[in-house]
Amino acid sequence: MTDTPETTPDTALVRPEARSPRGFGDKRGRDLIAERRIVAKVSEVYERWGFEPLETPAFEYVDALGKFLPDTDRPNEGVLALQDDDDQWMALRYDLTAPLARFAAQNWETLPKPFRRYAFGPVWRNEKPGPGRFREFWQCDADTVGSDRPEADAEIIAMASAGLRAAGLAEGQAVIRVSNRKLFDGLFDAGGVTDPAQRLTALRAVDKFDRLGWEGVSALLGEGRLDESGDYTKGAKLPLGVAATIEAFLASAGDAALSRAETLEAVARAGGLGAAGEAALEELAGIDAALKAMGVDQASVKFDPTIVRGLEYYTGAVFEAELLLETKDDKGRPMRFGSIGGGGRYDDLVARFTGQSTPATGFSFGVSRLASALRAAGRADASVRGPVVVIVFSQDDMQSYLDAVSELRNAGIPAELYLGRAGMKAQMKYADRRGAPAAVMLGGDEIAAGQVTIKDLDAGRALAAGVADNEAWKAARPGQVTVARSDLVQTIRGIIE
C-alpha cells in the first residue's frame, strides 16, 4: 500500500477567483432579450429606409482602425490589440464605422453608389469603465457612403429619431442634438491653433461640456484636469484668448427653447467663425430644410453647438442622441445617462485607403447603453417568458413525460423536461424561477385516466399578489386545471396567448 503524501501549502491546488474583467459583464436571458429586441426593432427601421445589412470581422488591422501609434511598442491605447504570427498588429474593432470604411475602400468598384448599409454587433474599447459604460458593448449603425448632400445627413438623423421611437422611447424621452465640426475649425483658425493634436484635445474637452460644465472644460482646454478618482487628463493648453472665445461661443446658443433656425442665427451673431464656420452654418441650414420636409419636429432634433463628438474622423455635421428619461442607479439614487448614440459626417475616412475623397455619414445606437438606460429608468421588460416545464414524478413514467414535452415543442411551444432530481415542490419553484407560463403534471392517476393537470403559473402569480389568506389560496389551487391528455397543446396555447 502506497502512502498518500500530505498536502502542503506549496503543493495545494491554487484555485482562481471567479470574477469578470473590469468593464466586461455576463448577461442572462432578460438582459440579452432586451438588447436583441432593440437590435431587431432598430434594424427594421434601417431596412424600411432602404439600408442593406453588412457584417465585418471582430478584428481589423490596427492601421485600418486609425489607431496606430508609432511611438509605442504595443499600439493598444484605446483599443484591445494583439500581434499576429506575421508580426502585424490587429485590434478588436472599437466601432462599426472604421471597418465600414475599410470594406468600402476594398470593394468600391462593385458597390452601388451611394452605398447604404446597416450593421450591428459587439465593439471593444480599452478605456475606463463607469456607470452604463463598458469595455465591451453592442452598437447598431446605419451609414451612407458616397453622398455629400445635406439631405443624406438629414435622412440619417430622421431615421435615428425613428429608431429611438422603435426602441421604446416615446416623444419627449430623447432628443438628437446636431452641430458641425467646422464651426470649431473656424474658431481655431481665427485663434491661430493649427496643431491637429491640440485641436482634437480641445474638441474632446468640449465634448464633455454637458457632463463637466464650463469649469471642467476650461481646465481641459488649459493645463489639464484631475478627476474625482485621482486620474489626471492632460489639457489642450490653448491660448487664453481662444479659450475665452470658445466660452462665449458655447454661451451664444445655450437657450434650449430656440428653434433650429434661431440657434443658427444666434451662432452667426457670435461672429469670428471664418470661412469654415460660415460653410458649417450653410450645411446645417440645408439639414434643417430637409428635416422640415420630412416632418421632423423641433423637439426631437435640436441644433446645439456644444456637440462635437470625440472621435478624430468627423469632418462636418455631428449628431448626439441624449436620453431625457429620469434614471436611477442600483441604490435608487438619481443618475444621468446622457448619450445613447451618435454619429456624423466623416468625408476623409475612406480616403485614408484610396487617396480619393469619399463623402460619408452615419449614426450609431449604443445598444447595450440604451438597454442599461431603460433598465435604470424602470423600463426593463419583466415579462420575459421561460419554457413550459414538464414535472417529473417517477422514472417509470419517463416515456409519458418525453411524449408531452416533444408534443409541445413540435407545436412550436418552448418546453423543457425537468432533469434534476428534486421533488415536486422544488420543481414547481424551479418552474417559477424560470418564468414558465405553465407547469405540466402527469402523475400516475392522470396517465391512467388519459388526463393531464396544468398549472397556469401566470394566473397563480397574479392571484397570489392580491390574496391575504395563504391557506385559502393554497386550497383554491389558483390557475390549476385538469383536462383530457389530447387537449394539452390547446390548453397551453390558450395560457400563453
UniProtKB/TrEMBL annotation:
CDD domains: HisRS-like_core, HisRS_anticodon. It is an enzyme of class 6 (ligase). InterPro entries: aa-tRNA-synth_II, aa-tRNA-synth_II/BPL/LPL, Anticodon-bd, Anticodon-bd_dom_sf, His-tRNA-ligase, HisRS-like_core, HisRS/HisZ, HisRS_anticodon. GO terms for molecular function: ATP binding; histidine-tRNA ligase activity. Residues 1-27 are annotated as: Disordered. HAMAP family: His_tRNA_synth (MF_00127). This is Histidine--tRNA ligase. It comes from Brevundimonas goettingensis. The gene is hisS.
